[in-house]
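Lab notebook, design round three. We kept the backbone fixed and only want residue identities now. Task for the bench partner: fill in a sequence for the structure below.
Input structure tokens:
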């Protein structure tokens, strides 16, 4: 049976999912997390996940009390059926269809389906994901219409009343940094900066003002630009 006021957060260990986790911990009495090992090139994110979760608990006794079990799911089949810059050591570039080759077709659809299965078993009634339509890439499986259609399909297929929440859907990266600040102040912002991982190349050798990463891949550029805009607005305030 689904329990009211409970959520399962799709948590990769990156900026967006960490911000979504803080958002959920502000709103739901019981919060669990789920992550996926899909043979990603930036598998370093799997190593930072438990560190970020531990630091989130340390930020607030209330969050520590609300934050429950973490679920790690093996979805390595994704890398065996896809050929992308996130699952293979190839150069990041645009494709003929107008999407970057960092797009992993069907990835978020599968993530949400598996998350719904876990939520069903665990009695959780909300799925929280960091999908964002304002992101630079325009990934079709990050769009609002996709998430709404998926919510309908999941509930029809499982006879449930699951709700899909995407708190980042209509905001940019500057606003994502602002959302983190609203949820946990400078301590959470610093946690996001230096504990989370976003870089597509899995680079954590160099520390920048916005965190660790290669500094040149699309994910790093987006994160860095958003942080600089956020920091500038804080200084001007």
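Proposed sequence:
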């Amino acid at each position: 049976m689904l329990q009211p006021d409970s959520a399962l957060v799709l948590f990769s260990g990156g900026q967006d999912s960490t911000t979504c986790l803080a958002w959920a911990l502000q709103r739901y009495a019981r919060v669990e997390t789920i992550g996926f090992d899909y043979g990603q090139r930036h598998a370093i994110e799997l190593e930072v996940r438990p560190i970020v979760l531990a630091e989130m608990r340390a930020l607030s006794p209330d969050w520590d009390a609300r934050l429950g079990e973490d679920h790690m799911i093996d979805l390595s089949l994704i890398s065996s059926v896809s050929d992308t810059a996130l699952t293979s050591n190839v150069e990041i570039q645009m494709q003929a269809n107008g999407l970057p080759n960092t797009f992993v077709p069907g990835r978020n659809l599968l993530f949400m389906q598996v998350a719904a299965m876990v939520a069903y078993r665990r009695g959780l009634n909300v799925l929280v994901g960091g999908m964002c339509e304002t992101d630079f890439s325009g990934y079709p499986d990050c769009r609002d219409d996709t998430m709404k259609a998926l919510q309908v399909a999941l509930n029809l297929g499982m006879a449930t009343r699951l709700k899909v929440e995407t708190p980042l859907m209509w905001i940019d990266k500057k606003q994502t940094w602002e959302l983190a600040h609203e949820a946990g102040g400078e301590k959470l912002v610093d946690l996001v900066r230096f504990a989370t991982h976003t870089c597509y190349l899995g680079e954590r050798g160099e520390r920048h003002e916005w965190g660790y990463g290669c500094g040149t891949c699309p994910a790093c550029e987006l994160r860095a630009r958003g942080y600089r805009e956020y920091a500038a607005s804080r200084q001007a305030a």
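Keep this in mind before ordering anything: Residues 3-172 form a domain with the Rossmann fold fold (CATH 3.40.50.620).
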